[in-house]
Design a protein that fits this description.
The protein is α/β, with parallel strands linked by helices and 285 residues long. It has two domains: 33 residues, no CATH class; 227 residues, 2-enoyl-CoA Hydratase, Chain A, domain 1 (Alpha-Beta Complex), CATH 3.90.226.10. The protein has nine helices and ten strands.
């Protein structure tokens, strides 16, 4: 009788767990608010976080698409960096340049184009942070100078979009000489009465901020961009004091008279167009 109450054990069969794999790259975390953002959503916001307004760093193609009308022409692409000092540290400068060229980075750290911005003829130079942190070497300085000359020839405004870690140490003093060269070229535009607009994006530091980036007839910054010469940590260690909150950010510089306007990326093209309309035709403004 006891066998009547014996529970028969049934063999358990393994059940395959189904996992849903989310394709990589669909989502991105905002560096400011830490929220996850659907990457395709950023396309519609010009790579600005829709939750907190943080401006993601963008490349040259995105910058050209945001600012220029279709039909622009790339200039001075034949200029390539050399290795005048035979610089070798942990990495050989020559090898770094070769790897960048193999990866398709053929324009050095700045791209110069001519075309129109909302119908206004312009020459625009855009620094490329993917090329050695957009450091300012001899080719960068020469392309910026040639951009000034082209704007002078075309009698049109000149715009530089800065995003740089500063001077290129691999070229030593030659890189520092570019500060004076570009600044002197911009003075030529000033004497001719041609507008020069400087767009400051994150980051704009070192010798770039100490020269042409701060010489615009109008200095326009994107929100929360880091703008300064030395980094905050270096300054604190030097002066042995804590720095104010937001130090070296766009809004701090605006409050202290170092930049003229902080403009969201969504509104940047329209703001520049309105500025150029006033600068090039003040009587009709």
């Amino acid at each position: 009788m006891s066998s009547w109450f014996v529970k028969k054990r049934q063999q358990k069969t393994a059940v395959e767990e189904k996992t849903v794999r989310v394709p990589e790259g669909l989502w991105i975390k905002c560096d400011a608010c830490k929220e996850l953002i659907y990457r395709k959503e950023l396309v519609n916001t010009h790579n600005v976080c829709p939750k907190c307004g943080y401006h993601f760093r963008i490349g040259v193609p995105e910058r050209l698409e945001n600012l220029m009308d279709p039909g622009w022409t790339c200039l001075f692409s034949h200029l390539q960096s050399a290795d005048p000092l035979g610089f070798v540290a942990q990495k050989s400068y020559k090898d770094q340049l070769a790897r960048l060229a193999a990866a398709g980075q053929t324009e050095d750290a700045v791209v110069v184009v001519e075309g129109t911005l909302s119908g206004h003829p312009v020459v625009v130079s855009i620094m490329n942070f993917d090329f050695l942190a957009a450091s300012m070497g001899s080719v960068v300085g020469e392309k910026l100078r040639l951009g000034v000359e082209r704007a002078f020839e075309k009698h049109c405004p000149y715009i530089i979009v800065s995003c740089s870690g500063g001077a290129r140490m691999q070229e030593g003093t030659l890189s520092l000489m570019q500060m004076a060269k570009v600044s002197a070229a911009l003075a030529k535009l000033d004497r001719a009465g041609l507008p020069y607009l400087s767009i400051l994006t994150d980051p704009t530091t070192g010798g770039v901020s100490a020269s042409y980036a701060m010489l615009g007839d109008l200095n326009i910054a994107e929100p929360k961009a880091l703008i300064g010469f030395a980094g905050p940590r270096v300054i604190e260690q030097t002066i042995k004091q804590s720095l104010p909150e937001g130090f070296q950010r766009s809004e701090f510089l605006l409050a202290h008279g170092m930049v003229d306007k902080v403009v969201n990326r969504d509104n940047l093209k329209d703001f520049i167009a309105a500025t150029l309309a006033w600068m090039t035709n003040p009587a009709g403004a």
